[in-house]
Amino acid sequence: MKEALICYWQSTGLITDRRLLEAFRNIPREEFVLQEYRHRAYDDVALPIIADQTISQPTTVLIMIQALELQPSDKVLEIGAGSGYNAAVMAQLCSRVISTEIVPELARFAAQNLKKAGIQNVEVVEWDGSQGYAQEAPYDRIIVTAACKAIPQPLVEQLKEQGIILAPVGEQYNQTMIKGRKIKGRLITEELGSFAFVPLQGSYA
Ligand code: SAH
Question: Residues 11, 56, 95, 194: which is the catalytic one?
Fold first, then answer.
């Protein structure tokens, strides 16, 4: 079932990076969904998790992670651990992921799932990631997996020069994926298409 999804990505040319393909092969998405959705773990759809949140659609995870251009030495900050799945895939391609989650029961859910999947280089922190996570800054890459009205300024400040940030920016139900690269302290951005994420909460949302 997982191979069918990977075959689809290859045949459509969506996946171009071999390392990324292996990262998806390595991570069992069934460990990150609720028991009752295990049989649908490789359907290319977002699925409900707990606290009215969702695990993102696999193709969305692919597009975002590919756009992050992860390097093996990278330290990555994620806003929105959710199920922990996106963090688990990224962790195959970089050195460390710090994944923030504002809902305590989801922070526990993500940490448990990551443990079940045997992932050791992700730290889940129960924290309002809209303000970044200054303790571990600066970051090579930052990924926001919840919809924001604008990219929160603390995230730009905590991104390294030449670093990349990805965030779905826009209204409820329809956002544009923004990819920004920090050059001389400012973000140079491009747009990667339309997506629909659950809303970012917190003080800089
Ligand atoms: N990346 C997740 C999907 C994220 S869904 C996965 O792979 O499953 C969005 C998540 O962002 C939700 O869990 C929500 O609780 C969380 N969230 C929303 N606002 C947040 C904030 N300010 N800081 C940290 N997490 C936040």
Answer: 56
